[in-house]
Amino acid sequence: MRRRLVALLTFLFILGAHLRSAQQASPLPARPDSLKFAVIGDNGTGDSPQYDVGARMNEARTAFPFEMVIMLGDNMYGRQQPQDFVTKFERPYAALLQAGVLFYATLGNHDSMANRSYPGFHMGGERYYTYAKRNVQFFVLDSNQLDPRQLAWFDGVLKQSSGAWKICYFHHPLYSDGGRHGSNVELRVALEPLLVKYGVNVVFSGHDHIYERTKPQKGITYFINGSSGELRKGDVRPSALTAAYFDQDQAFSLVEVSGNDLFFEARSRIGRTIDAGVIHRQNGN
Amino acid sequence: MTHRAAARFLRIVFDRFLLLPIGAAIALVWANVAPESYFVFAQRSAFAVNEIGMAFFFALVAQEVMEAVMPGGALHSWRRWTLPVVAAAGGMLGAMAVYLGYVHVKYQDALSPAWPIACAIDAAATYYVLKTILPHSGALPFALLVAIVTDAIGLVIVAPRYLTLEAHVGGAALMLIALGLAAAMRVLKVRAFWPYLLICGAFSWFAFYREGLHPAFALIPIVPFLRHEPRQLNLFADPRDDDAVHHAEHEWHRIAQGVLFAFGLVNAGVALSGYDTGSWALLSATIVGRPVGILIAVGLATAAGLHLPRHVGWREVLVVAFATSSGFALALFFATGLLATGPMLAEAKIGVLMSVAGAGIAFGAAWLLKVGRLAH
């Protein structure tokens, strides 16, 4: 009897380990011709968790050679002198920078306006800008202030965009289950009509120091990656909006756009997969 | 009896400019209970209220200030102005220093350009607080002059920083037409106010708008062409409907009250979770920076030989300094003029709403220091 019990427990252990390893195997196909990028937000603390996340990102790159990182704001907390760019950006991501990975930032509420001219953030001195990579066009907004000029610019570039995938990112989330900040409805009322009208597929934001993926809202999936440096443990208040969330440790995301599919995987500071999936793009959207 | 009570209540609401706080209170509740519908409403209504409607309010304020400072008006004597100008400068510097210092210490320099919000004084709130505490003292005109000077400087700073899509040329020509028409009406002895405000005002409004200046101030250049009658210390009160000028002002006053209600409704709604550094910076600047600045400036001025107003001592000056803390209507207006839709504006709005606490501090100080009606 005891032997059978031991055998059963051994079988269950092996099965569990197998299932875990199957879970840990990256769901990202890492196709050679796809666009691969990483996502971080609210990262610029200069503390050890930020360095840990940087190390995990570099490790991930061996199997998933992403070429760029999008930064969702609060790229720099506290003092923002030249030395701080070293301790809060250049050192934590030194291996990635040496490998030629490019970082494209948006401004958060803690970022100095002057940071848009920092060469490492590739903002070209602008508060808002757009750029294209393969079949994806990125739209980067300054959600601190949606002035009429920015909204007119956004409307114009969306109208002209020929990118198959339209990905938008800015600091403050339109949808969020974060307890401290939550959804910014005022921004949503201003931005969502444009996002829907022009068929934006995915929106990334930070600000709430959590990881969250929403169920599609009017056809758009919203990600919050605001815990790549800062963390507000246990802050998520799950709701009907929530598709997945993680608020127990720092996190970053990996994204691959291949044809009509966008694969995503969010990983924790210790490299554990906390969310993964694929978003299919309908033709014309 | 019920009808009479309702009429009395409405009169109090109108006379004390309470439609603005009522609108603001409704907005605050609405924005936190049904935010989606509130912000759709607010964003659709903002231009009509802030850029067009508020022009009538600022013109009315300009008219009342002109009548108060003209010969026979309560604030006519220029000798009275020296100390308030010094106090206003001190209050502005104090508020600005605390605001900028706070955001700098918090490493949020992106909030720095919003410093004029910290300088705004709600003259009506100041007036009613001091009218309650010190109704027959020289402190009341002194405080009003501090508010008028401070806000006039603020308007000059805010007007050119209007967040417009793009400025066009041609505004100067439109302004010349507006002023020419107003001068012609004056020569032709047009007595009614509305042709000035609606015809000349329309040209002036487009002139401001095209030049990238805040169009809410567009009727102010037209006001000097209107007829005026000296005004005593019933500033902000609806005048008696006893002659042509007062009749026009009476109608104008009603419209301005409606505009202020709409202004509160459209602008004061903010998600309370939106408080952040900007909120605390504005609160500190208004309830600490400005009073301290005013006290230091008045202290230096009296040391240099200027005299305090009659029957006003240091305890009264302290109460006046706190009574000017509330920025409310004007600070909200400055905020919407300086900051675009977004979290920074929300932070600022929360700070402005919290600055109303300054009125409570003024009453508390008066009670502790045994000043005016609260002496016993």
What can you tell me about this protein's structure?
- The complex is a heterodimer of chains A (285) and B (376).
- Chain A is of the alpha/beta class and 285 residues long.
- Chain A has helices at 2-24, 48-63, 82-90, 94-98, 148-160, 185-197; strands at 35-40, 68-71, 102-105, 129-133, 136-140, 165-169, 202-205, 211-214, 221-225, 242-246, 251-258, 261-268, 273-280.
- Chain A has a 7-stranded mixed beta sheet, with helices on one face. Chain A has a 6-stranded mixed beta sheet with strand order 3-2-1-11-12-13, with no helix packed on it.
- Mean pLDDT of chain A is 92; it is low at 13-23.
- Chain B is an all-alpha fold and 376 residues long.
- Chain B has a single domain (3-163, 214-375), classed as Na+/H+ antiporter like fold, CATH 1.20.1530.
- Chain B is built from 15 helices and no strands.
- In chain B, helix 2 (19-33) packs parallel to helix 10, helix 4 packs antiparallel against helix 11 (277-303) and helix 6 (123-133) packs parallel to helix 15 (357-369).
- The longest helix of chain B has 35 residues, at 35-69.
- The mean pLDDT of chain B is 87.
- Chains A and B meet through helix 5 and helix 6 of A and helix 3 and helix 14 of B.
